[in-house]
Predict the structure of DNA-binding response regulator.
Amino acid sequence: MIRALKVVLADDHAIVREGLKLLLSTMDGVNVVAEAASAAEILDQLAATGADLLVLDLGMPGIAGVQFIRELRATHTKLRILVLTANIEPRMVSAAMEAGADGYLTKHGDAAEIGQAIAALREDRSYVSQATGFASQSISPIPLTRREREILALIASGTTTPDIALRLGISPLTARKHRENLMRKLDLHNAAEITAYAMRLGLPAG
């Protein structure tokens, strides 16, 4: 039996949170432990509950877009972040995923996708809603972990291995090993090939 995911629902509309809570209550292995209507409440609830998953609307008070995701990722390294928003712009999808989101759902999409996204996140896979029209180009044909996506985006933007280590808070040796493993996994041989691969996925390249 799988351990129940502790979920925090973050949306500034109470009716949306109630609908989500009702939907998630029908799913096995999912336990909504808290709700939040602002950035401050999110931080408080994450600290209080030790949640595994944050379902996040980016259009909430106190949230400066994808920068908030970066800040969460820096302080809650094991937290899974599932964006649920009305914004379906490909640029926003790409920016959110690069910032560290694990999944991206649109409020215009099929409700069943929430279950599919949570299942993917449990397996350390990313998920982007079909409704964004971005899924085919944003998801690697070879499944990548969140850390591998971070490394891919950083290399593609021209970040050096020492700077990658600094950005991710890891040793240069570990950063180099991550880079080597990623290149081996994707059968890529140099930075130019990595950049081309990242651009095919819609990630920004420097």
